[in-house]
Amino acid sequence: MRLETREPSGSDVRATIDSDLRAGDVRRTDTELRIGATAPLDADAFRTAAALAARSLRSEGGTIAWRAEDAEQVRAIAEGTAYGAYDPGLFKRDYANRSELTLALAAPAELADLATRQATIIRHLDAARDLANRPPNDLTPVALSAHAKSHGLPHLTVESHGRDWIEDQGMGAFAAVAAGSAEEPQLIVMRYDPPGAPADVTLGLVGKAITFDSGGISLKPSLRMQDMKGDMCGDILRAANGKTIEIINTDAEGRLILADALHYARDTGATHVIDFATLTGAMSIALGDLYAGWFANDDDFAAHIDAAAQTSGEHAWRFPLHPRYRRYVDSDFADMKNGSELRQAGAVLAAEFLREFTGEGPWAHFDIAGPAFLSRKRPDYALDQGGTGYGVRLIVELAQRFAAA
Ligand code: BES
Ligand code: ZN
After folding, report:
1. What is the SS3 assignment for 132?
2. How far, in Å, CA of 237 to CA of 170, rounded?
3. Atom 13, ligand 1: which residue's CA is nearest?
């Protein structure tokens, strides 16, 4: 999708919200799109209406013209159009020849910069969805690092490290998960250091980027799994921060990768660390595919995150950390274990596990197992099955708050 900031012209299809229509209804003529929306007409209503408008023109392409009155509408209309215009058919024969959709956004002059910024966000939102939708035989770790290196942006450096380096660094947790695949693993490090960035803050963004859940597809029942260490006698790993982990469940592999990556981010200078991970089925049971659940060890940092989420409109709900949860990941053989016999509070236990690797300073963890990847369509923003790009908008808002501070 392309975004142009301008007044509508002759051949554009003009889109408006029509309060006489039922929410979700789309009426269309050659020159006009009218969309029903639920009251109140907040950012979410505009995002969904813009998505529906874009969806109705997605296959034929063309230009949709919207008028935005304020900053919130500029954001929502641009984002919604991108959601609705997104085509998940990356591997379809005609994908390269698909027709392009343009958004002609008329807005007060002082919002032109915001519209340009939104165009950038949308590009990355689409890219995040493409990555989530690419299958693991295509998007291997090496392909992912090639993608990271292909950005062409100033002040952004990317390096990546393979299996030997990961082992040499003592990242025993990461290395053990990577040993499950013949594909070369990659620790991808991106550093963005634009002129004028605040000197006292470094925001560390951490993800696990498991290209396919390496837990295996036909696992033993979880509660029996720990006994299977008898088959190969004692899996105990040492992570890069020196702590040891008893592996009682090979499917709880995401937290192992994050353990070493979180430590690395802190160790290489991040003052504020935040990770986003599709970490537990327990979180998607708790919140479904609409909200992410998050955790933070610092209320000040949490307040920034909360404000960023309010602006970005991504639904996020804070969960508790408490030292008394820690005993459920105590191990008799190592400093901790990567799962638990306790079947309750799985998402919290995962967060408590991660906390062991975050070093000193503010840290937050987003469990996006629900909203990151949909197993069925969702009517808001006309979302298809597959990757949603959850977190892209929130990260931008958060980084911008820090840059302005
Ligand atoms: N990637 C999964 C978590 C997940 C589940 C994400 C469903 C999205 C939807 C993760 O690797 C995993 O398997 N977690 C286990 C942890 C458990 C064994 C402690 C889980 O949630 O079942
Ligand atoms: Zn798993």
Report:
1. helix
2. 10
3. 251
pLDDT tens string 315-354: 999 999 999 999 999 998 899 999 999 999 999 999 999 9
171 and 98 share a domain?
no
Q: Which two tokens stand for residue 163?
A: 């299996």
Ligand 2 center to 305 CA (angstroms): 27
Residues carrying an active site annotation = 220, 255
Tell whether ligand 1 has an atom less than 6 A from the beta carbon of residue 222.
yes
Domain that holds residue 21: 2-108
C-alpha 236/C-alpha 101 separation (Å) is 53
The percent of residues in the chain predicted with pLDDT above 90, rounded, is: 85
- 194 in any annotated domain: yes
Name residues whose C-beta falls within 8 Å of residue 183's C-beta, 6 or more positions apart in sequence.
140, 141, 142, 211
- Of 60, 90, 108, which residue is a domain's last? 108
User: Does residue 291 carry a pLDDT above 50?
Assistant: yes
pLDDT tier at 228 (50, 70, 90 boundaries)? very low
Judgement on whether residues 80 and 220 belong to the same structural domain of the protein: no
Q: Is the CB of 372 under 6 A from ligand 1?
A: no
- Contact status, residue 298 vs residue 360, Cβ threshold 8 Å: no
Look up tokens 């963890």; give the residue. Answer: 365
The answer, yes or no, to whether any atom of ligand 1 lies below 6 A from the CB of 253, is yes
Furthest-apart CA atoms within the chain: distance in Å: 73
DSSP state at residue 204: E
- Say how many domains are in the chain: 2
Residue 267 CA to residue 264 CA, distance in Å, equals 5
CATH classification of the domain holding 350: 3.40.630.10
Kindly tell me if the per-residue pLDDT of 222 is higher than 70: no
Contact 271/202 with Cβ under 8 angstroms?
A: yes
Question: Would you say residue 212 has pLDDT above 90?
Answer: no
Q: What angle do CA 175, 180, 182 make, to 5 degrees?
A: 95
Segment 77-83 mean pLDDT:
97
